[in-house]
Amino acid sequence: MDMNSFSPMMPTSPLSMINQIKFEDEPDVKDLFITVDEPESHVTTIETFITYRIITKTSRGEFDSSEFEVRRRYQDFLWLKGKLEEAHPTLIIPPLPEKFIVKGMVERFNEDFIETRRKALHKFLNRIADHPTLTFNEDFKVFLTAQAWELSSHKKQGPGLLSRMGQTVRAVASSMRGVKSRPEEFMEMNTFIEMFSQKVNLIDKISQRIYKEEREYFDEMKEYGPIYILWSASEDDLVDILKDVSSCIDRCCKATEKRMAGLSEALLPVVHEYVLYSEMLMGVMKRRDQIQAELESRLEALTYKKADTDLLTEEIGKLEDKVECANNALKADWERWKLNMQNDLKSAFTDVAEENIHYYEQVSQTEEYLINLDSDLFLREDLDNNF
């Protein structure tokens, strides 16, 4: 908070100053709320695409209103992600969901796919809104507030084709050259990313396989309940018991379905998001290395006097500042990301564990009930034989 903005008549007691400092440092004060909902299909002569409604509510002074409503398509989200990476090359930008399902498991315009994407886009925007730096990005503000024609006009104001090509050529040249001496802390960071990528990809594959097997088990179990009902129609002496067995199977089906919902909502999206994060992190490290490689090339040119010395010295000074800013930004964001990652994965696995415990409790109760049914049946048969 800017102390100069307060009126001279406002009390400045030690207690009030402490409260002001607490308010300034409070990370949980949320002033930007974003909702992504109401997917809508659009069909043109050229293409078919989905747009999503985005509602933004805020109390920030830099916004012209307290509430905005716009519609955006997936390409607009891609544009925003690109602009954030361009403005903050070594900050960890939240990942977007893939444009297509690679394995062909779901149709592109299938309702489940659209809903899964909507949730991922909702999380993408809210992660940006919660980020201490990205949330104040001007392109992010335009994305949330501008109408479609205004956004199109804003996109055209970016760097021209030749400028973008020049940036791409320099980036490729830097990546081909590589860095001579990456700082030790970034070497450790890179090793962590490689290990994390391997592990989270493995967890993702295992989780997907568990869900698939659970789905197959559920589909097979659903067929048994009706069979026992049909059987009961031809067994007068076993009608009640067979119906009870069918009821038990039905309870197991419902418990299994709830368990599957827990996997698909609590675990699978979180794990897959961090698979995408691991790819994003590799990109961040490449961009950091490109900035350092550009500095090293200028230092090499100065050593061999391949260009104007004064001009090179000025460029080197700017690049040194750029490298320092890039390194500091990545180090700060890295710790924040690791904490979020640990909390997210811990919460996801804890939720699934609790759901599994509840599931096995229900199944155990059902098994006990079936055992008692068997006992009753044997007792009844024994009595019939004795008489």
TrEMBL record:
Keywords noted in UniProt: Protein transport, Transport
Superkingdom of origin: Eukaryota
Pfam families: PX
InterPro entries noted in UniProt: AH/BAR_dom_sf (IPR027267), PX_dom (IPR001683), PX_dom_sf (IPR036871), PX_SNX7 (IPR042130)
Keyword Isomerase attributed: no
Gene Ontology biological-process annotations: autophagy of mitochondrion; endocytic recycling; piecemeal microautophagy of the nucleus; positive regulation of autophagosome assembly; protein transport; reticulophagy
SMART domains attached to this UniProt entry: PX
Compartments reported by the entry: Early endosome membrane
GO molecular function annotations of the record: phosphatidylinositol binding
UniProt entry tagged with the keyword NADP: no
Predominant location: membrane
A GO cellular component entry from the record: early endosome membrane
Gene3D superfamilies, alphabetized: Arfaptin homology (AH) domain/BAR domain, Phox-like domain
Record family assignment: Belongs to the sorting nexin family.
Entries under PANTHER family matching the protein: SORTING NEXIN-4 (PTHR45949), SORTING NEXIN-7 (PTHR45949:SF3)
Record's subunit section: Heterodimer; heterodimerizes with SNX4.
Protein name: Sorting nexin 7
Organism in which the protein naturally occurs: Otolemur garnettii (Small-eared galago)
